[in-house]
């Protein structure tokens, strides 16, 4: 399909981006702009801004941005042309779409078609007389029709039956060899899958690429599971089972559950948990980790409780921590996988197991005791050093004391819950001017100066970002608030903030000016804590004073005595809170 450029421009001019985006998620007006929770990453506070004047949206956390058509395309995961048509329909624009020349055929389509045919054959055989034993087994494992249909589960019957089907349906065996359905280098058709339950595997886009196939009990002829060998389509290290389905439900669920095998994912699905994925028993590769990171949701690791599973969980945790992926690990006393839990105890028990998680640091506190001999002094030191690094790198400061206390009980070594090594705005501290006292600004600008001081602290030390989020949250000044979002986004991608690079990505001229002003401030690195604390006190003081002024205005108009008493009590509480700020100690 092809859309005339004149129509595209007309649609862009007529479409109101606020109205379009509001059909997908709630927006709240803030000044001249609107804000909302960004749907393109794991956003818990409104990071996305929508400008009616510019007719654009921009997320200052993940960087997503564009116009109304771009938002629809990204949100619904559809092409530009389809997004234009959607927006046109929403604004009732009479769009005339011309059919474009057909796209070049996908060279892999014959391979996908071959696997789709074999999957359909397997589903047919599962429902046949020959599939009775397989059906009985699946019923015993509490598979229902919905699960069988959703995951396209089938059955490959006897060697001879599969061989005859493949010869009849595919006169040229080349395609079958390419997709791993038959053995390569033989003078006859030797099927790779027979007498087994078939579970199709797809790539991230949902294209069929191969199978994991389970033997049907009580037979013990061969390995319990057989997977497709590496082929043109099937590269095990690049694949995650059920990824294409889980990607559609992960954001709504607010998580994705990482398992070892396909049966684990099926066990979750039977319990009504569709966001399960599996790396098919392999250690999580960089390619798989990248796919998981793209989902932008926290990961719940539900690996087997045996030694191999726990080691795999540890390795995943190390990689995920380095990649900045949020995750926790399922902890259970009984070494059971999701499918066994569902069979023996039901769906509720599976949900409870998934919800029973611990931090990576707590997991390592236990797991690493199997890797180190704590009766050996040198091993105990190495254990303590590794645990210290994990605690500081993976836990927020308020979480650290509990784990350090447990670590001391195990090793006798004492640690302080200090912030992790800071990430900074500039490593060239020696080039900065010595600190001099800030000029005292007029009282009317006191809060603005305090907000700038907090921004300076955040630019120079990442640890102050969390304190800003906990103690301030939102700046009153619009430019300060925008710069705060840019800073948080920059730290997500870099260990240091490059002022030139940060300046280049800021779109608003006034925000660039603010950053340039802060770049000229003296070096307060020796007293940043005091600068930050005093500024937070000032911001809170100004905020409470504003609330008191609002109450005073209400008290002038209230008529009811009961309402007056309520307002007076509220005012007294605010005054007490404001007075308590004066005694706050700044170190």
Description:
- The protein is of the alpha+beta class.
- The strands form three sheets. It has a five-stranded antiparallel sheet with strand order 1-2-3-4-5, covered by helices on one side.
- Strand 4 and strand 5 form a beta hairpin.
- It contains 25 helices and 14 strands.
- 50% of the residues lie in helices and 9% in strands.
- It has five domains: 5-90, DNA Primase, Chain A (Alpha-Beta Complex), CATH 3.90.580; 109-234, DNA primase, catalytic core, N-terminal domain (DNA primase DNAg catalytic core, N-terminal domain); 243-358, Dna Topoisomerase Vi A Subunit, Chain: A, domain 2 (3-Layer(aba) Sandwich), CATH 3.40.1360.10; 366-411, no CATH class; 429-582, DNAb Helicase, Chain A (Orthogonal Bundle), CATH 1.10.860.
- It is globular, with a radius of gyration of 30 Å.
């Amino acid at each position: 399909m092809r859309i005339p450029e004149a129509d595209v421009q007309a649609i862009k001019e007529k479409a109101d981006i606020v109205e379009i985006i509001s059909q997908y998620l709630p927006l709240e007006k803030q000044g001249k702009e609107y804000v909302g929770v960004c749907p393109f990453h794991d956003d818990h506070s409104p990071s996305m801004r929508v400008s009616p004047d510019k007719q654009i949206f921009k997320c200052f956390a993940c960087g997503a941005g564009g116009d109304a058509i771009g938002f629809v395309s990204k949100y619904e995961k559809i092409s530009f042309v389809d997004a234009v048509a959607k927006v046109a329909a929403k604004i009732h624009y009479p769009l005339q779409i011309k059919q474009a020349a057909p796209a070049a055929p996908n060279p892999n389509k014959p391979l996908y078609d071959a696997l789709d045919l074999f999957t359909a054959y397997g589903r047919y055989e599962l429902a046949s007389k020959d599939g009775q034993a397989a059906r009985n087994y699946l019923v015993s494992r509490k598979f229902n029709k919905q699960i069988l249909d959703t995951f396209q589960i089938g059955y490959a019957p006897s060697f001879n039956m599969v061989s005859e089907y493949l010869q009849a349906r595919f006169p040229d065996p080349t395609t079958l060899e390419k997709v791993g359905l038959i053995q390569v280098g033989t003078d006859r058709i030797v099927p790779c899958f027979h007498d087994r339950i078939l579970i199709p595997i797809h790539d991230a886009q949902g294209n069929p690429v191969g199978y994991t196939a389970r033997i049907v009990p009580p037979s013990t002829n061969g390995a319990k599971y057989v997977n497709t060998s590496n082929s043109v389509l099937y590269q095990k290290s690049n694949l995650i089972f059920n990824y294409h389905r889980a990607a559609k439900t992960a954001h709504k669920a607010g998580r994705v559950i990482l398992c070892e095998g396909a049966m684990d994912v099926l066990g979750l699905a039977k319990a009504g948990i569709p966001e399960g994925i599996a790396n098919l028993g392999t250690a999580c590769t960089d390619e798989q980790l990248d796919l998981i990171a793209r989902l932008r949701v926290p990961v719940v690791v539900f690996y087997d409780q045996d030694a191999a599973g726990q080691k795999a969980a540890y390795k995943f945790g190390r990689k995920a921590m380095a990649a900045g992926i949020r995750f926790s690990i399922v902890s259970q006393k009984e070494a059971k996988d999701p499918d066994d839990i569902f069979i023996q105890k039901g769906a509720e028990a599976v949900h409870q197991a998934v919800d029973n998680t611990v931090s990576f640091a707590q997991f390592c506190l236990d797991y690493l005791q199997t890797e180190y001999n704590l009766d050996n002094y040198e091993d105990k030191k190495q254990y303590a050093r590794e645990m210290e690094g994990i605690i500081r790198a993976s836990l927020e400061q308020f979480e650290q004391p509990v784990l350090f206390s447990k670590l001391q009980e195990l090793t006798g070594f004492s640690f302080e819950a200090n912030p992790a090594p800071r990430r900074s705005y500039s490593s060239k501290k020696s080039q900065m001017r010595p600190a001099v006292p800030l000029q005292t600004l007029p009282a009317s600008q006191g809060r603005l100066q305090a907000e700038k001081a907090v921004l300076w602290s955040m630019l120079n030390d990442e640890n102050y970002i969390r304190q800003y989020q906990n103690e301030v949250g939102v700046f009153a000044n619009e430019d300060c608030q925008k710069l705060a979002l840019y800073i948080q986004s920059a730290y997500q991608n870099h260990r240091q903030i490059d002022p030139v690079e940060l300046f280049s990505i800021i779109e608003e001229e006034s925000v660039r000016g603010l950053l340039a002003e802060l770049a000229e401030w003296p070096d307060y690195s020796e007293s940043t804590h005091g600068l930050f604390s005093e500024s937070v006190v000032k911001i809170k003081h100004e905020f409470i004073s504003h609330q008191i002024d609002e109450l005073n205005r209400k008290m002038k108009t209230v008529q009811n005595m009961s309402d007056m008493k309520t307002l007076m009590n509220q005012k007294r509480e605010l005054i007490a809170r404001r007075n308590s700020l004066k005694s706050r100690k700044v170190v």
